[in-house]
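Sample entry copied in:
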Amino acid sequence: MAGMTPPPAPLLLLDVDGPLNPYAAKPHRRPAGYRTHRIKPDSWVARHPQRPAEYVRPLRVWLNPGHGPELLALPYELVWASTWMDEANTWLAPLLGLPRLPYIAWPQLHQQDPDGLHWKTRHLTAWAAGRPFVWVDDELGPQDTDWIAAHHPGPALTLRIDARIGLLPADFATLADWAAAPGA
């Protein structure tokens, strides 16, 4: 109908370490298709306050350059849902071929939840504000999925990724299928 605005695309809430950077792969065994990058984000340097910045060893990340185009081809609004927050735009987006993305600014990192939920679950769900979303993370549990289903009014999918492997073609297929029929 004329004058009707289509609904916004569902949100794809992306964790970095695990899904995009399979940090838990066997030591020194970069997964096939990934490239090694050594970077020094400010948050990494801040974790080593006993050393001057120039003596802090760079952080090693493994990224698959094909993931950026694959993510952009999906019908989602991409959002960083990572402790990297805006640093993902500075350090990782260019390596993946992604534009600057919105990010969730966490009020506190790694806090304990009274119900045993992942520390991101409540804030992430509130941030989505009822919009359909998929949350891609390596630390999700069934309690997070159940809590989101009970407290989020829109369709939502939690997609747990193995931090030893990262995103796989089957995960991209799941994301494409869900976007075609959110909540089906």
